[in-house]
């Protein structure tokens, strides 16, 4: 730990950035190899993982000490005042070093040890199995097959080994097409809709400077189109804004024409046909901006929402100016277009952007989520992320800035996807098995580098890093805690919610306070409907189970002996022992008592000590702690 | 006056469009004295569609060929379109609606004719008089008395007959103080905060004027307030206007309390941080933002006002009896072409604030969004008499209490409860301090987008919340023997 010079500083003040009365907590700051830890005088712990630190600033010395401001990737901002400048300087320097790692092997995941043995670890990695997922979609079938072309990452380094392509597309066609597409990312299947026999496919843009045709690429598109017997046309969806593509658009159209010409020619077996016959590829542009626009948009958003003493009108004009919600809407609109093409027109869709790993991942995954209720379950959502993001080479390490690298590669593309999903959960409160906490927890871990899932930029790199041997998968840990992530209102059987048709009028897009202010406790509702409902639901289930158990016990006893007195005794003896009954009784009593404030400040990145652990405790106890801890406000009564 | 004079046509064939997601209705359209009716014919399932004409905010007519279209924009923000056969019929119906929806007379309004089954006249009217609140205060302290100095509304026409004032101040002093305050609204008790023994008072602005007039009795009254609280108590005068506006008011005869004349009281033009002090709130007239502030403060501080009964009492006491001029303020709503100066959505602003509070403390209010929506609807157009007139005095003159039904008796019927109550309510004995950062405030979609935005997914979800909550009560209450058969004897 050559970077750590000071491990402990006392009498440090932690300021609340939204408190009007400049309140602060005094405590001790500890620096460990992985975390920065602040323990206040009430023994409340605030853990900050070094990997979460996006920016450390040392401000000018004040009378009370030296201010140290830390901005985190999970949108936490802490403002410490360190009494002595020397200590502040030491910590500042250490954090600068510790928050930026030069190589993968120094990331937390390689040292994180949740005390599991090798087979448990391996089983964890096998939890999400994409081979199974393609099987679930009904693949392979008569039109689609598994291609072994990329088995050794020879054709495309950033694609996974297993790829589904039209059965009629031969290996030379695939190889040819991949040479024509940026980074070799040729058109492959992302999602197959069994009922409609239509597919969502993805690729990168055709190589720039292209003037000639690529017969193989044309072939491949034709094959995709033909693999859908229900429709004779397909869509090619370019997710980039049209204005940036003006010149490119012309070429694209030409390509289209050439391809169509070619296809029509071949189909008819004779010379050039008139243009009416070329209508079986339709181009669609949806204006999603690039990673640089998105990065600065989020930056603006955070600047606005982070300012103190913000007026309502400044907030809304700032929100408008940042453009963030406009981008969220653009991504959602694109996904809706995709879903509609499949549901209404039975058409297959090929989605691409530039490289086909940012906007393409957003649109393909969100579109599948609208179409398929499976992806709205806890397990299904993991599969979706594993498929459209991890395996298809969304560059997590670059986009999240895991290593000290090019800051221009960092962009909140995945955060944006999570926010789109959150907006859907808001519009369809019953359509998702998981809740907001699940999304926040995943967001926490794309940056935490505590698990291997999001380390690296593509599957090939992950294999080279031997992540499955050296690190753990996040999914089994989330699944283990899934009680925390259940949406109590989820209705898995509702036919109405099979395919989601969100409404994207502007007022449906709102600032995601629980994401961007998740650690600014004073801004949030003090009581949570969600928690209480979750508790009630759980208690109901428990009570019903108890009733059933007791009934069957009574029956058993009645069969054994006809003595009624004994049965009554049995009842009396069983009932007080039933924990659920007991706690539900005290629910009513205890809510009347003011309970001491419980600050939600303990966060680390381990699922064991994350910010939702409190809920879990409350949960397991089935006590009204939910209600009472939310009464935190009690502190401030007159 | 006969309504028939204003009704120009008997009936017409029409189609009604009620917005997205709602199927159109076809049938016979008919205008009566208080309602617009559409009868879809005998075989249709919803056999009658009814609209209170009073709830029409603006009306627009268009004719083309031999048919016409009337667009009705309602005070509850609903927009309805009627496609009517016949140009004459369209124009006649439009004129009838125009005339009937803008009738000024209170005693010919629908509440005086509304006689629903199951409700008795006079019920619930004596549910929330000031006497009732005084009893609550008197249990805690002897520093206050119920004065009937305003028995004949001569001191203050916008106050109720009885008000709560410091025990040591006699009725003559009240009369003098009344003359010193705009509209006679002398300082009266709004809320007694038992935990700290401090009080919330409200009044209108003092008439200091450019000459900086003073009134000894008014000063004594405020002095008596501090004397009645704990020793050494301090007071704050919260002026809801900006310092600039308050200063300007002096030119027109109004003004603010001079510092020297009211020792122990400090004037503020901004929100107050938490202190155990007595508060007097006023703006100019003391019938709008003043009531907004005092009633919201009570919701935050007083757990009782967050119950269904307590909230009704709060509205009755702090809005209706305190003289918020509902008839003037709620004469029109957002769609009206004419905008009289005295009209303003102050009560809606209050309801929105309560909604924000309810969102931040979803378990602490016994009533739900449905209650707030109902209050909004009824304050603008209602078959009940509760929101009629501008003051108690006017209500007495119109005999509202004896000749109309109270909204509270309507709302407190068991069948309404599922719509109005919050299934998750758990009494919370503490003050509920909301966050007022812009990030914490939301658009009240349930109200502003009620008719334009398909509310279905959230409504179904709300239904599920109810179901879970009721299941909870059921399973909790049930005995294991309930479902199992009785033990054999």
UniProtKB/TrEMBL annotation, chain A:
SMART domains: PTPc_motif (SM00404). It holds the Pfam family PH-GRAM_MTMR6-like. The active site is at residue 353. InterPro entries: MTMR6_PH-GRAM, Myotubularin, Myotubularin-like_Pase_dom, PH-GRAM_MTMR6-9, PH-like_dom_sf, Prot-tyrosine_phosphatase-like, Tyr_Pase_AS, Tyr_Pase_cat. Residues 533-560 form a coiled coil. Substrate binds at residues 290-291, 353-359. One of its GO terms (biological process) is phosphatidylinositol dephosphorylation. PROSITE patterns: PPASE_MYOTUBULARIN, TYR_PHOSPHATASE_1. Residues 124-516 form the Myotubularin phosphatase domain. It comes from the Eukaryota. Keywords: Coiled coil, Hydrolase, Lipid metabolism. Belongs to the protein-tyrosine phosphatase family. Non-receptor class myotubularin subfamily. PANTHER family: MYOTUBULARIN-RELATED, MYOTUBULARIN-RELATED PROTEIN 6. This is Myotubularin related protein 6. It comes from Balaenoptera musculus. The gene is MTMR6.
UniProtKB/TrEMBL annotation, chain B:
Pfam families: Myotub-related. GO terms for molecular function: protein phosphatase binding. SUPFAM superfamilies: (Phosphotyrosine protein) phosphatases II, PH domain-like. Residues 124-448 form the Myotubularin phosphatase domain. One of its GO terms (cellular component) is cytoplasm. PANTHER family: MYOTUBULARIN PHOSPHATASE DOMAIN-CONTAINING PROTEIN, MYOTUBULARIN-RELATED. This is Myotubularin-related protein 9-like isoform X3. The lineage of its organism: Eukaryota, Metazoa, Chordata, Craniata, Vertebrata. The gene is LOC118895167.
């Amino acid at each position: 730990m050559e970077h750590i010079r000071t491990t402990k500083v006392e009498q440090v003040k932690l300021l609340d950035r939204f408190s009007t009365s400049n309140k602060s907590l005094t405590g001790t700051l500890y620096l460990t190899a992985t975390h920065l830890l602040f323990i206040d005088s009430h023994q409340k712990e605030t853990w900050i993982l070094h990997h979460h630190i996006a920016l450390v600033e040392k401000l000018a010395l004040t009378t009370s000490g030296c201010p140290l401001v830390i901005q985190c990737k999970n949108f936490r901002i802490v403002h410490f005042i360190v009494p002595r400048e020397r200590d502040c300087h030491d910590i500042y320097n250490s954090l600068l070093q510790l928050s930026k790692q030069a190589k993968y092997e120094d990331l937390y995941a390689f040292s994180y040890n949740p005390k599991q043995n090798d087979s448990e670890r391996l089983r964890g990695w096998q939890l999400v199995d994409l081979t199974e997922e393609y099987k679930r979609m009904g693949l392979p079938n008569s039109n689609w097959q598994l291609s072994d072309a990329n088995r050794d990452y020879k054709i495309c380094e950033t694609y996974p080994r297993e790829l589904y392509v039209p059965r009629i597309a031969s290996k030379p066609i695939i190889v040819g097409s991949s040479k024509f597409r940026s980074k070799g990312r040729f058109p492959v299947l992302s999602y197959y809709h069994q009922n409609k026999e239509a597919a969502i496919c993805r690729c990168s843009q055709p190589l720039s400077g292209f003037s000639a045709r690529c017969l193989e690429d044309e072939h491949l598109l034709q094959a995709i189109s033909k693999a859908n017997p229900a429709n004779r046309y397909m869509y090619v969806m370019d997710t980039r804004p049209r204005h940036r593509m003006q010149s490119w658009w012309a070429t694209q159209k030409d390509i289209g024409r050439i391809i169509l010409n070619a296809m029509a020619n071949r189909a008819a077996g004779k010379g050039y046909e008139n243009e009416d016959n070329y209508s079986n590829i339709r181009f669609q542009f949806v204006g999603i901006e690039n990673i640089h626009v998105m990065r600065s948009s989020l930056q603006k958003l955070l600047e606005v929402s982070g300012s103190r003493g913000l007026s309502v009108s400044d907030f809304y004009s700032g929100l408008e100016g940042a453009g963030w919600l406009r981008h969220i809407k653009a991504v959602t609109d694109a996904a809706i277009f995709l879903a509609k093409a499949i549901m209404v027109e039975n058409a297959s869709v090929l989605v691409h952007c530039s490289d086909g790993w940012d906007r393409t991942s957003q649109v393909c995954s969100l579109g599948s989520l609208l179409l398929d209720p499976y992806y709205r379950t806890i397990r299904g959502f993991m599969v979706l992320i594993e498929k459209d993001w991890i395996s298809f080479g969304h560059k997590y390490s670059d986009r999240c800035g895991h290593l000290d690298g090019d800051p221009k590669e960092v962009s909140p593309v995945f955060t944006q996807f999570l926010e789109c999903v959150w907006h859907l959960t808001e519009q369809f409160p019953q359509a998702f098995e998981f809740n907001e906490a699940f999304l926040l927890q995943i967001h926490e871990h794309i940056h935490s580098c505590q698990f291997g899932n999001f380390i690296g930029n593509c599957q090939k790199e992950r294999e080279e890093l031997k992540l499955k041997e050296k690190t753990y998968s996040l999914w089994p840990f989330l699944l283990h805690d899934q009680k925390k992530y259940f949406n109590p209102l989820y209705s898995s059987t509702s036919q109405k919610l099979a395919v989601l048709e969100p409404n994207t009028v502007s007022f449906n897009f709102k600032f995601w306070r629980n994401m961007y202010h998740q650690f600014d406790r004073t801004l949030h509702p003090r009581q949570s409907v969600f928690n209480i409902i979750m508790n009630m639901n759980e208690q109901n289930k428990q009570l019903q189970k108890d009733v059933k158990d007791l009934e069957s016990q009574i029956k058993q006893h009645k069969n054994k002996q006809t003595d009624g007195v004994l049965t009554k005794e049995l009842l009396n003896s069983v009932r007080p022992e039933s924990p659920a009954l007991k706690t539900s009784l005290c629910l009513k009593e205890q809510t009347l008592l003011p309970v001491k404030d419980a600050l939600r400040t303990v966060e680390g990145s381990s699922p064991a000590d994350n910010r939702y652990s409190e809920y879990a405790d409350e949960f397991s106890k089935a006590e009204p702690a939910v209600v009472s801890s939310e009464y935190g406000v009690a502190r401030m009564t007159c | 006056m006969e309504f028939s004079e204003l009704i120009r046509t008997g009936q017409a064939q029409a189609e009604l469009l009620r917005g997205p997601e709602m199927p159109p209705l076809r049938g016979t359209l008919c205008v009566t004295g208080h309602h617009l009716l559409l009868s879809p014919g005998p075989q249709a399932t919803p056999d009658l569609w009814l609209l209170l004409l009073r709830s029409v905010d603006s009306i627009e007519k268009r004719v083309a060929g031999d048919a016409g279209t009337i667009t009705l924009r309602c005070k509850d923000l609903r927009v309805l379109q009627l496609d009517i056969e016949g140009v004459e019929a369209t124009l006649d119906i439009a004129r009838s609606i125009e005339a009937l929806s803008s009738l000024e007379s209170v005693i010919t309004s629908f509440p005086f004719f509304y006689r629903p089954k199951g409700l008795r006249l006079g019920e619930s009217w004596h549910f929330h008089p000031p006497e009732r609140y005084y009893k609550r205060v008197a249990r805690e302290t002897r520093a206050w008395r119920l004065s009937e100095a305003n028995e004949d509304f001569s001191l203050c026409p916008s106050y109720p007959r009885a008000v709560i004032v410091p025990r040591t101040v006699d009725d003559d002093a009240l009369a003098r103080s009344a003359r010193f305050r705009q509209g006679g609204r002398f300082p009266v008790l709004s809320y007694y905060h038992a935990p700290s023994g401090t009080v919330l008072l409200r009044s209108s602005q003092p008439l200091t004027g450019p000459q900086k007039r003073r009134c000894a009795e008014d000063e004594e009254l405020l002095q008596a307030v501090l004397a009645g609280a704990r020793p050494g108590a301090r007071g704050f005068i919260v002026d809801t206007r900006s310092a600039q506006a308050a200063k300007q008011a002096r030119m027109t005869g109004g003004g603010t309390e001079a510092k020297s004349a009211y020792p122990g009281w400090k004037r503020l033009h901004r929100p107050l941080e938490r202190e155990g002090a007595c508060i007097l709130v006023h703006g100019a007239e003391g019938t709008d933002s003043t009531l907004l502030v005092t009633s919201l403060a009570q919701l935050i501080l007083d757990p009782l006002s967050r119950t269904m009964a307590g909230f009704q009492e709060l509205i009755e006491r702090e809005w209706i009896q305190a003289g918020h001029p509902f008839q003037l303020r709620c004469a029109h709503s957002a769609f009206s072409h004419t905008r009289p100066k005295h009209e303003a959505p102050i009560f809606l602003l209050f309801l929105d604030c309560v909604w924000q509070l309810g969102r931040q403390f979803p378990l602490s209010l016994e009533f739900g969004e449905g209650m707030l929506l109902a209050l909004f609807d009824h304050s603008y157009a209602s078959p009940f008499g509760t929101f009629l007139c501008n003051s108690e005095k006017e209500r007495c003159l119109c005999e509202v209490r004896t000749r109309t039904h109270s909204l509270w008796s309507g709302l407190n019927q068991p069948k309404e409860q599922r719509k109005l109550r919050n299934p998750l309510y758990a009494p919370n004995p503490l003050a509920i301090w909301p966050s007022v950062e812009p990030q914490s405030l939301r658009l009240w979609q349930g109200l502003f987008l009620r008719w334009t935005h398909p509310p279905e997914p959230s409504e179904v979800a709300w239904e599920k919340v109810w179901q879970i909550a009721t299941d909870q009560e059921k399973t909790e209450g049930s005995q294991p023997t309930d479902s199992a058969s009785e033990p054999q004897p």
